[in-house]
Amino acid sequence: MDLFRNKIRDKRVAILGPADYVNKELGDEHGQYIDSFDTVIRINSMIKLPSKELEKYYGTKFDILYSSFWLTGDKFLEN
Fold it and tell me: What is the Cα–Cα distance from 64 to 58, expressed in whole angstroms?
């Protein structure tokens, strides 16, 4: 628990889930904004984007992954 606290205490933290509106409603500089945070937490399938083109919206950085692990095998890697 101390490792987690140290990763977020007094830091700018972005929490990012697989919301489709990000690449439809936000500017294509949004990925750089997400990556500028001290700590980026990604939820579920956000560890691997379906295409490199989406990185400009979702960024590439992540420090912590929270997952429900409801996807398995190849489906996890596809999403």
Answer: 15
